[in-house]
């Protein structure tokens, strides 16, 4: 069946429908990872967005037991070509079936490079995937302009707290749309991890007397998360060590008076170099964010820049002065992507031990 | 300025002559690195024995020494030039080994010279089997269970402990020389004995066989601050067991999930960090197809063939970055030259698929085994880029220029299902064609996988291509089908064949439906950032992103495709210089080529680079878009010449010598008419199509005769026939290589072979120098030792040659380059071959005369005259030194190849000997070719009757310098009669002790074995030569070569070598 991708600027790509055939409107973003399509599909940070994969051959190794959350989150999926022959020793099914099961509308056969170039030049924009051949641009374009991502954290967070048993430090993980490997990375290091829904109050967290607090990644515009920011401010006031990733990093910055802004087309992929300013070492990181912290708006007495992006100089991490708090914009939990910055979990472990 | 201010003058060591396993990739890496060093204001001293390279140009380095790559030479050079640093990681294994020896013998330390790039400790850790294993164990990186052995007994004991099959890898050899897989004790003993001999340190690693696992490679970079990145990973379609140089390789990996990808990536970074590498490094893995188990196969602590491939596949200039790292820069300080925005500390992301295929030399070595093993056999490779795998594979296939254009090109349709299953067990260069046929016969993916261990994903891709063949054959051709076939890169002629149309019809149908090639950019970043470097590949069904360029005149330079015997790196040298010359004249330059190893496909050589197959259809798509003002074909070897007619049909003017005149040189009758008009003699002969006609001509001329196809390179298919039987055999062989041109039969003249390259502007000619071949006519010019200036011809003959060259160039209306080969018998000069294009000798003669022939020819093509370019026409003044080009062979790599020299070219590369005296130049040339004598002072002679007289003289001279001569019966008698002591030995089939025992006894320096001409090659001689080569004994098969060798040995003392900076010539 034919499918169409219609962009806010009126560009139309024609392709073949994959997954669900229902219409969808979303924000279109691109990811440059060459492997890890399943991890991307199941990363809750993509809630409210449709993902374009720049690598043209997707689904080569099928669906493996590597989901980063319980389901697929993107509103839509845009690829050049899906493999008809998934091949891997852990393969449990094809991506075609997975997209159908997960009810994700998608389109294949798109010149994803041309599409990426448009997004790069004009910035992230909204779009629609439809299988309706008689689509009417006059009717659709105003809808696309009007689309707003909205509150997505509440959609992706867990409903009730749950725990991963462990004998080491007790970590409270705030789930704003956490990827599984954050909890797993802590758990592998012996932590007892309790995962809390995003709406959990600071008081409840503090009352549980955790050895450390982990603020997770998550979707959407950080500035809209005003209630969470207020709770995070309270967590900041405690002496509990805190480590934050991605949205968690942005929320902590906002809780301390800094500003965030939307990047033209974001950083999504597994090749972004970040520099640790303490030793000038560069690490290749996994990234997925459309917003960034404006480091110049951060009071230098409160936090200092710990990491920057080598390519564009944007902020990649903050270290809070006089606090056991550090936060990063990138994803040390990888999945997908390079594991180079996994050592940050060790640093968090040391912080928790030091605090005891 | 370099970051490290102590570095001011750097010695860069190149990789020497092109041999299998060490080819053009090091010219590419070395050239890029030298340019990068000069960019930093450093003084660069270059040492490389290979004159055909671009890196040995005076525009690339400040001081250029084309001298043998030996420890003594490097030491002398360091004392002479006093560099403060040596950069050894860009010249392959050859340079690395040299650096290690200099470090180990304390020379560098004593002279305050440091190794930059990577330290000797690192090299040792990575290269020494035992140290490597210990290091890997220390950081918990798994290697296959293995043991380093120094004798056969230990090898047997260990193999029996871990179980057969076992893999054997000699330490410190290149291209896996002497390695192999042993399935039983007998094979083990055979391979191990050989490997122990070939290893520089007498060590061989015996390890658990991991054949059948996935073979994955990572290209990693690390700087002095410990920052690491991976440039790219690559997956070998052929699983472990086939050398990666002979495998079909895809980038990035296709069948690895993120877990496997990151597991190996992390491992590669751990390894490069532990080894403390600063620069580029290649790590090879075996990955179990059904688990996460993996083994590190090997690490190359330097740039390599794979890194050249990774550079071209991603756009990331590994050699350039490695050079900057050597100067103290960190990755985040080095700009990404492609995007101009990002830095070298980011990892390239591909949004396309790259396929590399090896160019194997089995068309040259018909008797050789086609089987692929851990011993590399490919002479070169092609790379292709597409947005789908099928398309990339199809493009790679037709880039090979081996008369293959699809998966139907080798016809196995006569094989039954059972036969196919059997044939699939054989791992050779036609395996993917065999798989395609198996799929056509309904053999299942699982069956194919179980035999070949090629991942089902790749089998499915081959199946898709087979299905498309079927669709085209059986379904009426619709726009939809055509679109899909083109997306998979089926060429028009294949579609035409399958659908019963003509190629023209398909072409028109495509244009009618708007199905045309679009071009995408290789930008290192999957379009995330705008890129500044126009490096393109074609796709169908997508938007074109080539920016239209206007204003300057536009020239299309056609490259020479994969490196193969007969068409080597020389033509890349010519293409690059031509491009630079056009650029200097204000032209916009466009290069089309598909060879990832070369300088011409570096991203900043031309204004635009199209990485594409060199077929008429692929070139036409580029022409349609670029609309060049002209094309140059005379610098890209036969590959480019063959496109002439097609280009003219497209309406592209051929710059320089016109196509009709190129034809006239190849067309027997036209050419004879020209010779007659000029009054130039040539050996009598005739043009034939069948064996009968050939025999008729041969008998009329009288045997021996030279039989050869027209329009070929490197004398492919050329043979000397001594009787009717030979003719039948040779014509059969010629017809097997798809010959649609006539066959030439000429009287074979025994004389001196002379060669000239000349520039002609239509009126005047310029001959930089006359070259003389040491071997008599009958041995291919590319395999002959070539001497400049010519030694043994008279002044009068030189004038005759000058006169003939002028007449021929004028009659053929040559604008640009012409290469002519003559035979001189006494004072008589005969023309045997004329090529109105660049030749193999162009780089050599340019360098040794200091006359930049290619830029001159290019300027002439643009319209300048020789006189206005500051040169006096005619034969130039002879130099006051001697420059000798020596062919270099790779026979030990090709099992079963006959090494005897003849009219068909067999050498893979060349080196230069340059000195004030002939003898020293000759000595240097032999040294450069790796012939370092005497050692044991024992030799074997077995010569044919016609050589016996000369053999006696040669024997006498060898005896005089202390050689003990063993000889077969007839030769021994001849020697004794001539007063030379000779010890008669039995032939192979006779009882021990015989020739074979001597050879295998490792006390023999040299075998002089001149085989009979024609097809009458005895099995005996073949076996002697093969065994000698495989045990590392020097073998000479031409009496003239033997004479040259003894001359060089008589006269030179190594300590007195004079080193010549050719940049000052």
From TrEMBL, chain A:
GO terms for biological process: 'de novo' pyrimidine nucleobase biosynthetic process; 'de novo' UMP biosynthetic process; glutamine metabolic process; L-arginine biosynthetic process. SUPFAM superfamilies: Carbamoyl phosphate synthetase, small subunit N-terminal domain (SSF52021), Class I glutamine amidotransferase-like (SSF52317). PROSITE patterns: GATASE_TYPE_1. Residues 1-130 form the Carbamoyl-phosphate synthase small subunit N-terminal domain. GO terms for molecular function: ATP binding; carbamoyl-phosphate synthase (glutamine-hydrolyzing) activity. It is an enzyme of class 6 (ligase). The active site is at 246 (nucleophile), 331, 333. Pathway: Pyrimidine metabolism; UMP biosynthesis via de novo pathway; (S)-dihydroorotate from bicarbonate: step 1/3; Amino-acid biosynthesis; L-arginine biosynthesis; carbamoyl phosphate from bicarbonate: step 1/1. Composed of two chains; the small (or glutamine) chain promotes the hydrolysis of glutamine to ammonia, which is used by the large (or ammonia) chain to synthesize carbamoyl phosphate. Tetramer of heterodimers (alpha,beta)4. Belongs to the CarA family. This is Carbamoyl phosphate synthase small chain. It comes from Mordavella massiliensis. The lineage of its organism: Bacteria, Bacillati, Bacillota, Clostridia, Eubacteriales.
Automatic annotation (TrEMBL), chain B:
It comes from the Bacteria. Binds 4 Mg(2+) or Mn(2+) ions per subunit. Mg(2+) 1 binds at residues 284, 298. ATP 2 binds at residues 708, 747, 749, 753, 778-781, 821, 833. ATP 1 binds at residues 129, 169, 175-176, 208, 210, 215, 241-243, 284, 298. Its EC number is 6.3.4.16, 6.3.5.5. Mg(2+) 2 binds at residues 298, 300. Keywords: Amino-acid biosynthesis, Arginine biosynthesis, ATP-binding, Ligase, Magnesium, Manganese, Metal-binding, Nucleotide-binding, Pyrimidine biosynthesis, Repeat. Residues 1-401 are annotated as: Carboxyphosphate synthetic domain. SUPFAM superfamilies: Carbamoyl phosphate synthetase, large subunit connection domain (SSF48108), Glutathione synthetase ATP-binding domain-like (SSF56059), Methylglyoxal synthase-like (SSF52335), PreATP-grasp domain (SSF52440). Mn(2+) 2 binds at residues 298, 300. GO terms for molecular function: ATP binding; carbamoyl-phosphate synthase (ammonia) activity; carbamoyl-phosphate synthase (glutamine-hydrolyzing) activity; metal ion binding. One of its GO terms (biological process) is L-arginine biosynthetic process. It catalyses: hydrogencarbonate + L-glutamine + 2 ATP + H2O = carbamoyl phosphate + L-glutamate + 2 ADP + phosphate + 2 H(+); hydrogencarbonate + NH4(+) + 2 ATP = carbamoyl phosphate + 2 ADP + phosphate + 2 H(+). Residues 931-1065 are annotated as: Allosteric domain. Residues 133-327, 672-862 form the ATP-grasp domain. One of its GO terms (cellular component) is cytoplasm. Mn(2+) 3 binds at residues 821, 833. Pathway: Pyrimidine metabolism; UMP biosynthesis via de novo pathway; (S)-dihydroorotate from bicarbonate: step 1/3; Amino-acid biosynthesis; L-arginine biosynthesis; carbamoyl phosphate from bicarbonate: step 1/1. Mn(2+) 1 binds at residues 284, 298. Mg(2+) 3 binds at residues 821, 833. Residues 931-1065 form the MGS-like domain. Its cofactor is Mn(2+); Mg(2+). Large subunit of the glutamine-dependent carbamoyl phosphate synthetase (CPSase). CPSase catalyzes the formation of carbamoyl phosphate from the ammonia moiety of glutamine, carbonate, and phosphate donated by ATP, constituting the first step of 2 biosynthetic pathways, one leading to arginine and/or urea and the other to pyrimidine nucleotides. Composed of two chains; the small (or glutamine) chain promotes the hydrolysis of glutamine to ammonia, which is used by the large (or ammonia) chain to synthesize carbamoyl phosphate. Tetramer of heterodimers (alpha,beta)4. This is Carbamoyl phosphate synthase large chain. It comes from Mordavella massiliensis. The gene is carB.
